[in-house]
Design goal:
single chain; mainly beta; six-stranded mixed β-sheet
Length: about 270
């Protein structure tokens, strides 16, 4: 994203210099391009959350430079002057939500480049780079399932569905939820997510989808119902995988970008 402002009027140049009122030529700022994978930080686990491996490439011109940290609404949260300053920023303990790192090149006559302002309100002669996302999350909490256990006679043509399952926790957290049905060894048989009723097209929560799941026709034996809450991306959360092997996905830099919590289980006995 490239912007040049003088006063409140936007101007675009293909040249690399412009003339000042006294005849001197002034360099048009160029911020270059930031490169990095997005970052994923668990901000309540007590471990320092610092960025690393960010590079600034491409053409860079301008008398002054700085990194900018904004929230999702582009309000300025911090102004680390150098890469070292940026890498020393600790995001642990910040509130959950997304923030973004930008890079700005500018000349002397820039106003509005202050914490609390929006980057949209900066005026002067400057250029702002693309941004890199930082996802800040709290540790998920899946709570404690109540209800059951359930016993069904399978294969008799009668629907075998669960009901009355609840969660005793008042502090559930985690952006995404699902229920898992596993066999008694922990192999995932079904991943139950929110969905849409095929007949009414009504949106259903994951629990409502679970309550429509029919255990009749399954082979006799015990299976288990679990509840999972998670942030980011997970590996292993799929049918025929082992629940014990679910883990946060790892990105190209080797950083983990997912975290989850799994509840207790409720037994379903199929006779």
């Amino acid at each position: 994203m490239r912007r040049f402002f003088i006063g409140v009027l936007a101007i675009a140049f293909l040249a690399t210099t412009t003339s000042c009122d006294d005849g001197r030529e002034q360099v048009i700022p160029e911020s270059g391009t930031l490169s990095s994978n997005p970052f994923f930080f668990v901000i309540d686990d007590g471990a320092a959350d610092n960025v690393s491996g960010i590079t600034v490439g491409g053409v860079q011109e301008g008398k002054n430079t700085s990194f900018i940290i904004t929230d999702a609404d582009k309000n300025i949260l911090g102004l680390p002057k150098t890469m070292e300053d940026l890498e020393n920023e600790n995001f642990e303990g910040a509130s959950a939500g997304d923030c973004y790192i930008w890079y700005i090149s500018y000349n002397d006559s820039v106003t509005g480049l202050d914490v609390g302002n929006s980057i949209e309100s900066i005026t002067g002669l400057f250029d702002i780079s693309n941004s890199i996302k930082i996802e800040r999350v709290n540790t998920p909490e899946a709570g404690m399932l109540t209800g059951g256990p359930f016993t069904f006679t399978v294969g008799d043509g009668m629907a075998d569905t669960v009901s009355g399952i609840a969660n005793s926790s008042t502090a559930l957290s985690g952006k995404t939820e699902s229920y898992l049905i596993t066999d008694d060894a922990g192999k995932i048989l079904e991943v139950i997510k929110e969905g849409v009723d095929a007949d009414t097209e009504e949106e259903l929560t994951a629990l409502e989808v679970l309550e429509k799941f029919d255990f009749d026709g399954a082979a006799p034996g015990d299976c288990l119902i679990w509840y999972i809450r998670y942030e980011g991306e997970l590996d292993g959360l799929e049918k025929d995988k082992m629940a014990a092997d679910i883990a946060g996905k790892t990105n190209d830099n080797g950083a983990v970008i997912g975290i989850y919590d799994l509840s207790n289980s409720i037994t379903v006995t199929r006779n």
